[in-house]
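Board notes (copied after class):
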Amino acid sequence: MLVIAVSQSGGSPDLTGSLQAARECGALTVAVTNNAGSALAEAAEFHVDVLAGHERAVAATKTYTSELLALYLLLEAVAGGDTAAATALPDLTEQLIGQAAEPVAAAAPRYRFAEQMITTARGYAYCTAREAALKLMETCYLSAQAFSGADLLHGPLAMVDREMPVIGVVPRGKAEGATRDVLDRWSPAAATCSWSATRTSFRPPRICRCREWPRNCHRCWKSCRCSCWPATWRWPGAAIPTPPGLTKVTENW
């Protein structure tokens, strides 16, 4: 049994306790954190430091993208795969952010007054949709919910209309067709937002395209996070680095 615990701070007591229990039961335990001296890192038999550096903002994203990359490198290495493609990520990320800046700034006013939002994806991109919803709540103070495309069709789809912006992350691969089918059902009713790894288009329906593997979700998400949201929802006096009530370490027991 392999148990992998992921935490940017490595300080959450519930996660540390769960990992300790798993290790006591004989599981092989691995902690992935941004803090080599954390309680979680010490509780695990092995530790992977994502080396993302100090987070200056509470609602940071770089540890999330770094965790995706670390997990990809770890599991690809275990499987005997080739991780050489990951070396191109910094240049690809910088390139994509530069390409997206102007069209994002032009499209941002459309969503400035949104009070609710839905994010959706399938496959490896689903975690990015959930992270997107979390960051929207933390930094923009709006009600954002993340659903898989399958879950949306079981009921939440009924609340989607022209007043409900939707961000869809569509990975290339097996999940692409399934996610596209869901977004096609929205297109007559929803105010959707789309991204492309090769070009940026803001004609509905808008789809965030990235390859299915985590390394490319990292690239796509980094560009969307850094370029889109500050331009769209920041207003004078907004506490982006330190949202009220939030701390870097969540202690829930």
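Comment from the instructor: The longest strand covers residues 165-172. Residues 2-82 form a domain with the Rossmann fold fold (CATH 3.40.50.10490).
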